[in-house]
Write a structure and sequence with these properties.
The complex is a heterodimer of chains A (about 180) and B (about 180). Chain A has about 180 residues and is mostly helical. Chain A has nine helices and no strands. Chain A has helices at about 10-20, 20-35, 45-55, 60-75, 80-85, 95-110, 115-125, 130-150, 160-175. In chain A, α3 (about 45-55) crosses α8 (about 130-150). Chain A is globular, with a radius of gyration of 16 Å. The mean pLDDT of chain A is about 95. Helices cover about 65% and strands about 0% of the residues of chain B. In chain B, α1 (about 10-20) packs across α2 (about 20-35), α3 runs antiparallel to α4 and α3 (about 45-55) runs parallel beside α6 (about 95-110). Chain B has about 180 residues and is mainly alpha-helical. Classes of the chains: A mainly alpha (about 180), B mainly alpha (about 180). Chain B: InterPro entries: AhpD-like, AhpD_core, CMD-like, Uncharacterised_peroxidase-rel.
């Protein structure tokens, strides 16, 4: 049961967005820019970073939703997502993505864990400053979203189908336009 | 030196939001809503929660700047900030605020360690749902800001005087996105 009285039947961050629309607006605007707006990293790559960090934070709701959104874009049955979560070094993603996932993993542990060597490595694989910036901020933002969702003990459905349905909606309308009740 | 090419000489998060204003805008709006918006928690109390979490994350820039804002808001009682950073249990603050700081500390560590017991304790000391919500979100938000600022190795001034001025500006002007022209 959630720690505070949230609108019933809305899982994860949706209950929190309905409870606190003022902060939800900024949070959704941030997610929209980071995960959907024009970028040299594809939407699926950015969702993959979000999913990986949420999995490292063991946040069931966030890793399920964003994993489903990434799968939706990739037309994947979820296998790639599982591989990335389990061991991204062995997953069929680009070397640049592996370098960025390694930076994201360090950010998840703590900002100071990111080393100049990791940045150098990413740059050698073709990552731009903006891609490095966005990777760090996506990872940091999910350290926030995960804590928000789990720190208030929100409800995370166990049925994967619910996440698949939600991911189709999110892929279509995005975060800024999303309605927690629909 | 920062990991990426951000404006030189501009400290911490300001250099990052100047580098990427598109993400800076919602970040500053979030900070403004949480730390300056209408709330039954005072601005000083909310800055204190932000400062405490930043200290737990060892983010010197965020800790020093928000501590400076909290000192400016506490005025004659600004010494409270240093006691809280040392050991909040012994600080001259309300029992309710202590229970909220304990929740914030759990959020920083691992959100799943926020137990029904510590929430019940805060409630028994008068904390409302809204105050508990805001405490969790402030703590979570600073786990983001701290990682953003340190994850890109942004410039962290060491002169306490620099933070004093920042704190004053954060209180008097609020969280206003810097523009490239007036960045420093």
């Amino acid at each position: 049961m959630p720690h505070i009285n949230l609108p019933e039947g809305l899982p994860g961050i949706r209950g929190l967005m309905a409870y606190s629309p003022g902060t939800a607006k900024a949070l959704n605007a941030l997610a929209e820019v980071l995960l959907r707006e024009e970028n040299s990293l594809s939407r699926s790559e950015r969702e993959l970073i979000a999913t990986y960090v949420s999995s490292q934070n063991d946040c069931l709701y966030c890793q399920s939703v964003h994993g489903a959104v990434a799968s939706f874009y990739l037309e994947d049955d979820g296998k790639l997502i599982d591989q990335v979560k389990k061991d991204y070094q062995q997953a069929p993603v680009s070397d640049k993505m592996k370098a960025l996932l390694s930076i994201a993993g360090s950010v998840q542990k703590g900002g100071k864990e990111v080393t100049p060597e990791q940045i150098e490595d990413a740059r050698n694989m073709g990552a731009t400053d903006k891609e490095i910036h966005d990777t760090v901020l996506i990872a940091a933002a999910f350290c926030m979203f995960n804590r928000y969702v789990d720190g208030l003990a929100t409800w995370a459905p166990s049925d994967p189908q619910l996440y698949r349905e939600r991911s189709a909606t999110l892929a279509q309308i995005g975060y800024a336009g999303s309605n927690p009740y629909k | 030196m920062a990991h990426i090419q951000v404006p030189e000489g501009v400290p911490g998060i300001r250099s990052l939001v100047m580098y990427r204003p598109d993400t800076g805008k919602p970040l500053y709006e979030l900070a403004g809503a949480l730390l300056r918006g209408d709330s039954t928690l005072s601005e000083a109390e909310r800055e204190l929660i932000a400062t405490y979490v930043s200290r737990l994350n060892s983010c010197l820039f965020c800790m020093s700047s928000h501590a400076a804002a909290a000192r400016y808001l506490f005025k004659d009682e600004k010494g409270i900030v240093d006691v809280v950073l040392e050991d909040y249990e012994s600080a001259p603050i309300s029992a309710k605020l202590k229970s909220l700081l304990s929740i914030a500390g759990s959020v920083q560590q691992d959100a799943r360690t926020v137990t029904p017991e510590i929430v019940a304790k805060a409630r028994s000391l008068g904390a409302t749902d809204r105050e508990i919500h805001d405490t969790v979100l402030i703590a979570a938000t600073f786990c983001m800001f701290n990682r953003y600022v340190d994850g890109l190795a942004s410039f962290t001034p060491t002169d306490p005087k620099a933070y004093e001025e920042m704190g004053k500006r954060m209180v008097e002007k609020g969280y206003v996105l810097p523009t490239p022209q007036t960045g420093i």
